[in-house]
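Please decode residue identities from the backbone states below.
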């Protein structure tokens, strides 16, 4: 990642961070190098990052990065927050339902799932930025035109409730925040 890649990454972190409290346990799906945990700092009491191809040290003072396929989390713990930042568009369609169910399964009641995904138009912008060597463009070849409008149904089918939806970066990225219903809450 270069400086522009990191800047774009931090913009996602800022959007997601508005929905992450203090003293939380966070699972970051598609973490790469655990940069989200470094950015969140002491707000996270325990962080677990999972990635099929992790980069970097794999461990910090309050987090660990594990090599895991997506789906295929295989975690025996629960989290207050699960983040999927600029990752769902890399997951093959036939694996998305299983990943959504795994993420919902590790959330505590009342926990939040935070998803960001680019609009299809962002790929054209990123292709230009990569062509002129302003960004590294990690795994852009894995994008397949995922439509952000698919996100609510995908995660609602896993039992989560959409509580916030917005766009950022001039509409080129989308933010979705879901909550897991408690055991006594009915679906509405």
């Amino acid at each position: 990642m270069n400086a522009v890649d990191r800047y774009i990454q931090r913009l996602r972190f800022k959007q997601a961070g508005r929905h992450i409290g203090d003293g939380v346990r966070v699972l970051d799906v598609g973490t790469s190098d655990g940069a989200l945990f470094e950015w969140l700092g002491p707000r996270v009491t325990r962080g677990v990052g999972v990635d099929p191809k992790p980069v970097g040290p794999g461990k910090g003072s309050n987090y660990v990065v594990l090599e895991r396929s997506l789906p295929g989390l295989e975690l025996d713990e629960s989290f207050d927050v699960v983040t999927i930042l600029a990752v769902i568009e890399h997951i093959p369609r036939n694996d998305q339902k299983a990943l959504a169910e795994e993420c919902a399964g590790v959330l505590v009641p009342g926990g939040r799932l935070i998803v960001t995904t680019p609009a299809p138009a962002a790929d054209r912008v990123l292709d230009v930025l990569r062509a002129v060597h302003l960004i590294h463009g990690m795994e852009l070849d894995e994008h397949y035109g995922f439509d952000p409008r698919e996100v609510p149904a995908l995660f609602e089918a896993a039992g989560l409730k959409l509580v916030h939806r917005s766009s950022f970066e001039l509409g080129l990225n989308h933010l979705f925040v879901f909550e897991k219903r408690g055991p006594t809450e009915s679906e509405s």
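Observation: The chain has one domain: 3-180.
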